[in-house]
Task: structure prediction
Amino acid sequence: MGLLIPIFGEIQIVPQLIGILILIVNLVSPHFKARQSILIATFVTNLLFVVMYIYLSVWSSVLVVSICVLRDIIFICYAKRDKSTPIWLLFLIISFLISSVVLVYNDLRDLLLLSTVVYTYAAWQKRIWVLRLGILVANISFIFFDLLHRALTSAFATILELISVILAIIRYGIKN
Result:
């Protein structure tokens, strides 16, 4: 069930619609004033990524992003209690390392791993400006990853997200 285009093959509509939802949430979330709201938005987008990857039958991505969903749940729960999570952070980074090495068989996995680890560290911090900077670094890594894979639409969407994060940093300041 999809549109057949000779250059790209079959394009499935549902994952594209999910991608648009993800883009909208990612464009708006860096402008949230509360760290908790940004974490919840990340959780929602990662859940949407899992659904999209299941629909596309990209099982390795389902597993890796599911680990990110687990990370998001842990950070949201701990943020409500205002507690630090260093043990969970170490466990998650080790999980990302193992899943990245096992599931991705090329040199580009380092870009994905970098963006995931940077975002995980940034989300663990209490200061919202660190979280925004983490999103900025993660987006730069994803842009390179997308361009190297010739995923031009995804790169374009990530560039829009990068611009949104930069605007949020300018709007709220680096130390706010």
Residues 114 and 141 are 7 Å apart (CA to CA). Residues 10-172 form one domain. The chain has seven helices and two strands.
